[in-house]
Amino acid sequence: MxxxxxxxxxxxxxxxxxxxxxxxxxxxxxxFCLVFTYIIFSEGSVDELKVEAPPAMNKVEQLLxxxxxxxxxxxxxxxxxxxxxxxxxxxxSIFPQASEIAVALLAVSLFxxxxxxxxxxxxxxWRHLRGTRL
Length: 134
Prior knowledge:
Elements: H1 2-21, H2 26-42, H3 59-94, H4 99-114, H5 117-130
């Protein structure tokens, strides 16, 4: 229940981005694409990132907060691995010839892992601007 409430803004933004990607309103999508392209190419590189600790916490509390965050990240990763393993098992049990699909999913995941997201987003809008579909 709480997690659903926390992810509500994320799902709304996701729906809005999908409507932009499917060009349901071409003028809004075009303006979004232009603005996003400007942001991508105008942002400079960050040489230094300074993170300041909140002053209300002492060192022990900070360490406990970091430990708690790491534990939560491990739980999310484990849950994600479980979902992926279940999906793989279902895919391979339903379709014995799913090895081709598994290779395609692996290729897509490697692409997403190693190509910066700004180029992936730019590519997804670029093909719509050219008027062609892949």
